[in-house]
Amino acid sequence: MMEERKGKRSKEGRDQKKCYKRKELANMQQRKKWKFIVLHRGNMAKSCLNSGVELGERLKSGNHISVGDNKPKELPNGGELRCLRRTDLVKALANDLPWDTIQFGKQVISIEEDPITSYPILHLQDGSVVKAKIVIGCDGVNSIIATILGLNSTKLSPTCVVRGFSYFQNGHDYGSKYHLLSNVNDRVKLGIVPVTHKLIYWFVTRKWNSQDLKISRDRMLIKESTVELLKNFPQETVELIRNSDLESLHLTDLRYRSPWDVLKTNFRKGTVTVAGDAMHAMGPFLAQAGSASLEDAVVLARCLGEKIQNKPMKGTRVKEMVEEGLDQYLKKRKMRVFWLCLQTSLLVQSSSHHPCL
């Protein structure tokens, strides 16, 4: 009888935690429902995920229009672009994990080495402590883990970006192409990326100014200032911004990782490393950040799997094999992300002369 009660309480506890996980994922989806990732070569990314994540339309070509000229020019075909909703990706990955794996609302403030095992001990903002065997920092452009590993802070670009979404109940007229419009004189660029035949993701890049900190806190100011900025653009693009969903609007600065930091940094201390923007922040300039982060995940999983999967090991030998796997991962990724960060850096440095940043 006691065993039955114990088993029942255990099952109830698991069910409650599963329910909590579903609620947290739902809350995260509500907070980030408009956050999308643009993937370059979307088929490759989809085949890497292979987990039922819904991608947007294939965009294999695009047009560039210089405002004033209004003659569309075909953009070079560098492979297809696809839009992916960030929460769909997170949910797909979460669904393949054990129910008690994910903890929300946790932020690392420091890491120390266990004096006995040499594994990392994480100190969290809420005062709790986590003893880990592997730490992979995927905490973005302002990564705490990257700072702990000794990386310099990411650099601030003089360019900022406004992002938003516009929904067309009866469908839009932009087809299955991405569109770039630029104003040479004002160094303003508008990108239009169809997600579906009814939904458009758009972005506007321009120079950051002293008023933007105030504007970024008020979505109506973001919309009004962007409409004013594009007053010399074609009327249909101005209406695209004017009719955008207010909750989707964000104005942010853009940060990038110096390529020389990528080249000279080890990116590993013991069994602690980084991936994604924490390693190679590059902004949206190359439409490669999302794809590069997915590549990180695939390469990291393969390198660790080759070292530790189905291999009976004990004690320090496990740690050694994990470190070897992390070193292999970093060796395979370093030059790939160095060249991406170098391209970003060159674009940023030429932005004062190059209107197409």
Automatic annotation (TrEMBL):
Residues 1-22 are annotated as: Disordered. SUPFAM superfamilies: FAD/NAD(P)-binding domain. Signal peptide: none annotated. Keywords: Monooxygenase, Oxidoreductase. Residues 96-334 form the FAD-binding domain. One of its GO terms (molecular function) is FAD binding. Transmembrane segments: none annotated. The keyword Zinc does not apply. The keyword Manganese does not apply. Belongs to the 3-hydroxybenzoate 6-hydroxylase family. This is FAD-binding domain-containing protein.
